[in-house]
UniProtKB/TrEMBL annotation:
Protein's name according to its UniProt entry: DUF2065 domain-containing protein
InterPro entries assigned: DUF2065 (IPR019201)
Pfam entry (one): DUF2065
Residue spans crossing the bilayer: 40-59
Species this chain originates from: Inhella inkyongensis
Keywords of the record: Membrane, Transmembrane, Transmembrane helix
Length: 60
């Protein structure tokens, strides 16, 4: 459970870096994401899950 908490904390740190360091660029990227179709967003989500699981398997 401790590892899961650390992973969640690291994710929050990484997610917070973009709006902290470049709020204008983050806002522009977010507005472009809003223009994507549901299928495109699902594909991005699927690829994120696949890459994340692959990295987890490699690091075990």
């Amino acid at each position: 459970m401790e590892g899961l908490g650390l992973a969640l904390a690291l994710m929050l740190v990484v997610e917070g870096l973009m709006p902290l360091l470049g709020p204008g660029q983050w806002r522009a990227m977010f507005s472009r994401l809003l223009q994507l179709s549901d299928g495109q967003l699902r594909f991005i989500g699927l690829m994120s899950v696949v890459v994340g699981l692959g990295l987890m398997l490699l690091m075990r």
